[in-house]
Every structure is written in C-alpha cells, then in structure tokens.
Amino acid sequence: MYDFDRVIDRSGTNAYKFDLRERYFGTNDVLPLWVADMDFAAPAAVQKAIVDRARHEVYGYTIRKEEFTNAIVNWCGTQHQWPINADWIEYSPGVVPALAFSILAFTNKGDGVIINTPVYPPFYSVIADNGRRVIKNSLINRDGRYEIDFNLLEEQASQETTKVFLLCSPHNPVGRVWTLDELQKIHEICSRHQVLVLADEIHSDLALFDHQHIPFASLHNEAAMNSIVFMAPSKTFNIAGFSTSYVVTANEKLLKAYRDTQNRLQLHMGHLFSGVALTSAYNEGRDWLKALKSYLEANILSLEAYLAKNLPELQFYRPEATYLTWIDFRKLGMTQKELKSFLVDKAKVGLNDGMSFGQEGRGFMRLNVASPRKVIEQALVQISEALR
Ligand SMILES: Cc1ncc(COP(=O)(O)O)c(C=O)c1O
C-alpha cells in the first residue's frame, strides 16, 4: 500500500541533500545519505491537502485556526500519551529558530547552556552565536550505547551561571530514546539547580523497535513547569520543506517570554502551507507512519546484518529512534581526513562527518537509512568494495 522501495528522482527540486553535494563533498558523484530528510514521498493525504490548497489562486497572509492546535493536542495525546491544552502551544518557524529564540529569552550573554555531545551541530551554534557559553556534557559511550554522565551534569548544573539544559530527545546522532529513569534524573538535577530544560523532541515520533518516547514535560507537573518541548511533524512525515514546528509548555510565563521574543523578531506569521501540512499529516498520517517505521526498522536490521557479515570492522549500535545511524569506523585506523577521502573518493558515498557533531565524533560517520533499501544496499556494497 505504501511504496517505500520506489526510487524517486529528486533532481531539479533544489534538494539540499542532492544539490549541495558538490559544495559539501567536493563532487556530485556520491550516493547522498547525509542530510536528515527522507527520500520517500510524503503521505498521500498531505500531498492532496497541499495540492487542494494550491489550486486556490490567492496565497495571501494566512492564519492558523483551532484545527491546527487541535491536531497537535490530539497527536500528543494519542501518540505520546501526553495530554496537553491548546493554549500551551505556540507556532514556531522551525525547531532550530525556536531554540535560538529560547536561548535569547531565557539566558543572558555569558550564561552557560548544557548540551550532550556529540550532538546535532546547531546545538552549538544557537548557543555560541548568541554569545552564550556551550557547556559540553560528553555522553559516555558504553560499547556503542551512549549514556548521560549524571555526576558531571550535577556539577555543571550547580554552577551559578548555568541557566539551561538543551536536551536532544531522542538524541541525534547517537539514537538514544531516554528512559523514564534518565529523564527523571535530568529533571531532579535541573530543578535542584534552577536550570530550565529545553527539550528538542523533533525525532519523538520515530522511536523504533518498541522503544517508547516520553515527552519531558509529561513526567509530572513540576517537570512541565520547568520546560519547553519543541516538536514538529517535519521529520516524521518528510515535510521539512514546510515550516511546521511548534513549542509546548504548560508554564504561562515561559510561553509568554518565548512568544515575546519570537514576536520581537517579527517571525510569528509563518507559512501558508505549514498549517495545511501539519494538520493533514497529524490527522491522516497515522497508518503511513506505522508503515514507515516498519520500513526503517527493516533497513536498520539489514544494515546491521550486512555490517556484521561483510564489514565487521565497522561498529554499529542499533538506534532506538531516528533514521540516522551512528557508525564507528575507528577500527579502520584512518585519520578523519583519510576516512572522509576514503568514503567520498573511493566508496563514493556521502555521509555526515562525525566530527561535525563534536570531537567525540572522531572516527565516526552518520548514515541516513531513510532511502529505498536498494540504495542503502548499494552504498554498503560500495563501501565494502572500496575497502577490499
Ligand atoms: C535534533 C534536531 N533538531 C532540529 C532539527 C531541525 O529542525 P528545523 O528544521 O525545524 O529547524 C533537526 C534536523 O535534523 C534535528 O535533528
């Protein structure tokens, strides 16, 4: 019913993943498995909603009505067992912009913001580019499964100038779905030291292999009052080209401060198609998402089996969420420069450089499995042939 095996030609669509290869890899001759979007068609219901709206020939200033917030309330309740109110929600032009607004709203210049590294690169820039201090809480790699260093977190949170913990949940690139126990520990430490939790949960709908994502603010009222959660259907339904993200907090003061900053920057209007895309995806995309997750799990299992059989030097920890896999190439004994050149020039595959996520990513690469299975298989064959 849903054909994720179909290879869709994205050329001529200004796709970042395809059309920026020359700039990022120095050549167009690589299979692109980098940028975090998918090579699959969006759900038919979303395509139809967009086309239907596009048929109306006036594209003026557009508001988002109750159907927008209702779709979100319903989604959070049914997908994440998180009962929220419509008036806890604010639209945002993107999760990364919303993180930046929040850093501006809740910290001052020179304040410290904790992040779990290695991590999605904008986590560094939203802090540093705004004159705040990045406090690196380096994740502990236990045989490929990453854990938070809670002793270090306690020490970092206790510093007078530490104001925010920017949590990536689920975590990109290490693929962890934080457990109830881990989230509870984060909450205890942060609330003890009056550190606000900003939880980027953009990958929350893509918890795989029976892992269950827990929205940080759903822990209990105290956590809800000391956090803002950032979500979007963009990763889930492959609609990142639209601005479909939003923030949720039960804390009126936090919501007002967030809104004030977004409004001050005049970025509250949003895009005509964002409401259409979000509403149709959340209201009609449930079955599609179920099928997508099965397909992604099968891609990950096939990658895992291939590596075990043909490339045992590459270490791989099965992600608990996301279509992003974090692969350890360190046993090949190459420098990062040699590894990059090996993958681009010899294997002709375009992966994300592990070091773009932080120093901990030395010897690692991130491979995006959200492509038709035969594309992933082709990339793996190219890597193993280049190595032999
Ligand atoms: C953790 C995380 N946050 C945010 C984003 C991007 O959010 P947006 O496109 O809404 O700014 C990504 C995209 O890869 C991501 O992985």
Short description:
The chain contains 15 helices and 15 strands.
Mean pLDDT: 97
Q: Looking across the biggest beta sheet, what order are the strands in?
A: 2-10-9-8-7-3-4
Largest sheet: 7 strands, mixed
Broad structural category:
alpha/beta
Quantity of strands, as a count: 15
Shape: globular
Number of continuous helical runs: 15
Key terms:
alpha/beta; Aspartate Aminotransferase, domain 1; 2 domains; 4-stranded antiparallel β-sheet; 15 helices; 16% strand; globular; binds pyridoxal-5'-phosphate
Give a structural overview.
With 388 residues, the protein is of the alpha/beta class. The chain is built from 15 helices and 15 strands. Strands 2-10-9-8-7-3-4 form a seven-stranded mixed beta sheet, sandwiched between helices. Strand 3 (112-117), helix 6 (122-128) and strand 4 (133-138) form a beta-alpha-beta unit. Helix 14 packs across helix 15.
